[in-house]
UniProtKB/TrEMBL annotation:
Residues 283-310 form a coiled coil. The lineage of its organism: Bacteria, Bacillati, Bacillota, Bacilli, Lactobacillales. Residues 1-22 form the signal peptide. Keywords: Coiled coil, Signal. This is Extracellular protein. It comes from Lentilactobacillus fungorum.
Amino acid sequence: MKGHFKLAVAVAFLFASAGVFGAGSSVQADVIDNPGSAGSITQVNSGNVLKDYDESALNKVDNSSPQGNMSKKYTKYNLDPTGYNYGNSYSTIAGSSQSTTFNTKWFLPDGFNVSDYQHGNFQSVTLDDEGNIYFIESNGTNTNQGAIVKFNLAKLQDLGVDSDILLLWKAFDYFNPYSDQGLQHNQEYDQINSQLQGAFDQVKTLTKTLNQNKSWQNNQVNYQKNAKKWYQHWKTKKAKYTKISKSYRYSYATRNNAKKVVKQATSKMASWMKSYQMHKSKVAKYNTKISGIQNQLNTYQSQIDSVKAQNPEMFKYVEIAQTAQLSPEVDIGHGQTLSFNPDNGHIYLAEDNTLTDLASRDDNNTVLEMDPDTLKPIREYNFKMYHGDSANLQLHTLAFDSKGNAYWGRKFNGGYMFFYGRLDENGVSFQASPSYVGNRGGSTNQGVAVNPQNNRLYFVSDDILTSVPTSGVRSGDFSDGDIHYQAFNSGREFESLAFDQDGYGYLLALWPPELMQSTDPLN
């Protein structure tokens, strides 16, 4: 059920024993569905999954990359809640492989009211293949805690979010329970909501009954159509064999047999006509019943609409907030690995709680696999990645292609190297790409993403996106000319990149947090 805006729901998460949740976690349910308890998680312990490699044997692709932001110094500003806030627009600069622009799609709120740690610290974005977008909201440095928030893009568009870049921000700021004004709005909504609860319940019940009766009526309509089809079939057959039975061009035996078919057809027509009339009558009765249910539904809905009309702003924000679906609060690690696997339809998140490799060979990489429909865990993978005599590599980036191949990458000397393999219910394995990008144009390693439209793997650094064909990553067969770039001069912190099915890029940038969309599919 929907929780009231002011209601803080303390959830005793069972993840604590698996090290995913901190003790005493609480989730702010607000108007969004309460994420509830996560339950126990299946643990998959895979041991060492990395095929070791010789760094000196790797092929360096000596590329010439444009430069992104190498300074780790960023342009930051705050949104003005009382004034006009312009969207941002960043176009590619010289050295890029294409001319395109990232424009502000939405400014993101301080948070989705999951925790009082919220401060707009979004770390990852990913999209699935059904038009849903997912964000990781981090509680902040050293907490390693956060939540995944899911939206359906079409629903947000229907509510006008795409025509007002601040609307999503406004909706969650309006009901921010950690501000005095937001708390007051929560209390006002709570009072109105309690008064309308009876009408809400009736609308819910009647809507279910209405849809059920429409479904039953649709069955009768289909039965009626089927009866009409077979009536016409036998009518046509009767006409054909009536002519044969009366024509002396045919033998006596043929005419006699035709008369039998005519008799059978006449009987079948009568039977199917009876069936047609019966289902037609039932359809008419359902029309009367559905009309009555709809009238009742309209009465209760008009009561709700009358109250909503007195405070349209509040209920506009309620509708927007209720499009969000929250996960339980989870261990998100650094938070920059949220990714969707098109092969099994699941989302993944690495719990990398340090920014370095693992401290010892006894430590594990831990990756959480989640159901995108419920945002609840499916299983947790624990594995090591031994390199050389002592290193145990840690995964800080992650992406999947349409066939379920998994990719991650890390800085290597002045360049960037990739790893590929599998990470799913069938097993975990990785190996280094035989070739690496010799010169990277950015300082930071913010994430990786696969573009499903062109099957390229992008690694994200501040003010520059660099990509290589996924086939080249696996084979090691790529050259300087195969490496593409989208470089910018925004001064912003690029946190994460995702793609829709048409290849348009969705860029998560800070500060303020915003989602930007490319004007063209990225090449």
